[in-house]
Amino acid sequence: MARPARKQLAQLLDDTEPAGSYSAELLAPAHSLRIEVADLGPVPLPLRAPQARKLISVARPAMFGRGEETLSDSTVRDTWEITPDQLTLGGTDWSSILGEALDELRQKLGLPPAMSLRAEPHSLLVYGKGQFFLPHQDSEKDDAMLGTLVVSLPSAHTGGELVIHHGGDRRTHHASRTELSLVAFYADCRHEVTPVRSGYRVTLTFNLLAHGPPSTNGSGPVADLTRCLTEHFTTPATSQYESRPLDPPNRLVYLLDHDYTQRGLCWDRLKGPDRNRAALLRAAAEQAGCEAVLALADVQETWGAYPVGDAAWDDDHWYDEEDEEGEPDEDGGGTDADGDYELSELIDDDITLTWLTRPDGTQGDVISLHVPEYEVSATTPNAHLEPYEASYEGYMGNYGNTLDRWYHRGAVVLWPQQRDRAFAARAEARPRHALDELRALIEADDTTRAGAAAKSLAPFWRTAVAGDTETQADLLESALAVAAGLDSAATAAMLLAPFRLETLAPCHADGLAAAAHRHGDTWAQSLIAAWFGPERPGKTDWTCTLPELCRALRAAGAASAARALLDGAWSLVRADLHDGVELPRAEIRRPRLRKLGSPLTWLFQAVDDALRQIIQRTLRECGDNVLECLMPALRSPDAQRTAGFGVIARDCAERLAAIVARTPRDPDDWSITWSGCGCDLCDVLGAFLTSRSRRIHEWPLAKAGRRHVHTRIDTAALPVRHETRRQGRPYTLVLTKTSELFTREQDIQSTAQSDLTWLKSAWRTS
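Structure tokens predicted for 2OG-Fe(II) oxygenase (766 residues):
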């Protein structure tokens, strides 16, 4: 079988890889550099211990970055830092020597001649005995930042090696005692400084900034790459998870070797071999009629693996089941360290694009787009790169040892410029831009094209909208405007179906009303019913918008849509209410019912008279536990101004009065009303519970029976203590009715009396 075009493309780019490395080192004469530090004066080289201690006297503990934060933690980074404003760097030959060194380092890093590097001072660092910096990755502090330059000053010390990791490789750089040591490396390389064992390690660090025109014409097999792109986008895809052929892919995602930040992702600042490969792909894309943009990708791989030295799993492997009942594994299960493991086979992988640049390369968008394996090409496999995180999971009984690895990689994303296919590819990555294009077509009165383009979104639209979590409200506003302009009611419903109900806000009322007017009340009711479907909201907090939203819908002439929303909202509140009042355990039931007080208030403020009466009737049919929802609602600041709450207040007053009027339990009445599941055990338990005089029941019972009785007592929150007397066979279950039977009823009546007194005062109920 012929290799897929995407794999041929990866091989072609491998053949064109230029010489280059992720790090490079040079030596320079120490006398060429003159350093002055504020308040200290010149720093003589080679550096001696007394001078190092003077540097520490004007330094501060070094900080480090983690995400958007700047932190200080000596367990992560233990060193002293002198900032650039305290430093003056010079020397008669320093500028020329640094310039020549940067040009040579550029060549060693595989960067093109048209690019120039500039070293921007960042800090002077002093490491004393025992000080270190754990493995980390430098943040890109400038849009033009490509990497880091470390200039080690000559000094007598041991330890303090600079260790750089990339692509599974590891390089250790030692400082010179007599010369300047210059080490340059890309910013995505993880690196560390090992603990200093003796003396002082002193370094100057610089941000490496890249400048130069973008490379537009790479030399190499552009014609062959063009052929691969054409073949990729015209050949039905084959997936390892699908037996039938699929449609031709809409995109190709070529993974680059290096990691980039959003700020640093730019065609003219790509690193090492990435630069030449991307240039070749752009040239081929132009000839193949494709658009090319840059992206950031998150990659996860799950491998079968086992620690080095252990035998791999085979058919002869066995284990003693008793081991599972014994002590935990010495390694404690999963780990965050990659460690030394032998990889066996790739079990699963997942690639998600998280950032996509605009075609002009000036801006980008946060996205979350899963990429299937048949759209991915890579010259360098993930396994040959350094993961930023790894986790090993030992044998779990139903699957073998696994090693999860996570990577950040840059990517070139390509798609055909044919109108329909380009629209679909862009839309899946950026739903907002797809809606903008559809609105433009509708405003140009080209509804036929708009309808066809919108219909093409159906295969992936739900996933695309779900991935665009940061702009859901704006996205819904645009989707409503497009839906109102489409001729097809089915396509309009498809566009709106993926949105979550809690996204709907008063600002969307006009758009929803316009769509309802275009496609009819029945269409709007069906759409809203779908929003209340299986993926309905898990919470009812969003109902706070209902009063204003429904008023706006009625004002826009969409009363039917408002009623559909209220019917759906009441169905959610009613279901939660019925579930809540049936809960026997008060410590669980009360907070749940109390939370429903506010949604119930918002509903009453939004409903019409007909639905209000339905809600009032339903509440009257609930048991007395519903008071735990209604009383907090009646105490809310808006309750007195909410139509229909007067009826609720009177109903609550009647309930409370009936509770207060109950005859207290006789002091010798120990009966408990309860019904079980109908089994023999529950019949025996029920006879004991309903007895007025029996307080204790001793019951020889096997383990399974005891467990069943325990469960029934605890589930119903009965005031019965259950203990097991472990003597004889079977053991004896001892059940004892507690005085909580009396205090619980007394507390209920006391609370009812307090609530009734407040109701009569606040609501003037009699």
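The chain has four domains: 17-211, 222-311+333-429, 500-661, 680-743.
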